[in-house]
Amino acid sequence: MAGLRDIVRGESHFNIIGRFRLWATVSGIVLVASLGGLFGRGFNLSIDFKGGTSYTVPITSGSTLSTESDAKAVQDAENALSGYATDVRAQLQVNRTTKLKELFVRTPHLAQDKLLTVQQSIAQLAGQTDANQVNVNDVGPTWGKQVSSKALRGLIVFLILVTIYISVRFEPKMAAGAIVALFHDLLATAGIYALLGISVTPATVIALLTLLGYSLYDTVVVFDKIREMVGASGSTGRQSYTDVVNDAVNKVMMRSINTSLSTLLPIGALLFVGVFLFHATTLEDLAVALFIGTIVGTYSSIFIASPILAGLKEREPRYRAVRERIATGDVRGQRAPQRPPRQPAVADYVAPSATSTALLDEDGDGQAARQQARASGGPIRVNRPAPKPRKKKKKRRR
Hints:
CATH class of the largest domain: Mainly Alpha
Distance between the termini: 79 Å
Number of helices: 13
Largest sheet: 4 strands, antiparallel
Order of helices and strands: HHEHEHHEEHEHHEHHHHH
Number of strands: 6
Number of domains: 2
Helix content: 55-70%
Strand content: 5-15%
CATH superfamily of the largest domain: Multidrug efflux transporter AcrB transmembrane domain
CATH architecture of the largest domain: Up-down Bundle
């Protein structure tokens, strides 16, 4: 509870920058899994990107597909349609509105005569007597290429503008940290899509671009706090740049969490209302990418962008010298003055002894002995008789 209270007040002291290896390990595991999903399974691109024809038909209870397992039904459908197209993909899904099982088939773009033949074959597989029960969506290959090229072009333009803005508004090293965090968010989100097999649609691309804007906003908030604290304390040499970044991240952490929660709540409402209540597929594609990306973006702005910035700035001669001065105890840039060696105590009085007899001057007050001792740095030996004890006065009787 005490740690949570410190986070809320902005008074936490977590060593976030010092544990960069831990955060890098976590991110490395996520990115390796994402790359495995991207190169292993690949994206489940929608027909808008690949081009082709999709067929959707409800399965009747009397059809052969309804009595078979899902894997066997998919295999039978692909085998039955393999003579019409080279790349046929089939899957079984449940209609969110009617709650009925449907057969979804996707093929490359076909000529008009083959398209009608495949439509009739799919209707027979699903147990439908009318071929019009099959919903056909035909997208040409040119449209799919245009969507893909425009999405890639928009991403490149976005990254260039972001780099220029942060370099001018802050500094190039902050731009480098922000770009690394953006690539981290993009790759992690894309890997999750590939691993889970979520369909990638144009709405997903819009959500990813929106996500990158949000991640950039959160990173800029953290960098602005770092710049403010570097100007206040880092430039004086009292703290190293890493310590200043760590303090800034601790102070702004609650703000980032509040921003993320205020973003996740509307997205969660969009998922619940748009998907489960109104069964809007477009809203699902948009909300899932935003929900995943918001969590990843908040993580990267604190645990990826800030440590990278600290590592780059610590290599500069100015902040390297500050760290060396702090390590040697010179906080303000000047070495602390060394204390002179401690002198032995000087005694004003030493009881008479047989060995100390010649240090009294003519007056007997020991002044010459003191001067000689101060000049030599040794103790003063004065042969002075001990004071006489005082006599007690007798009280007079009245």
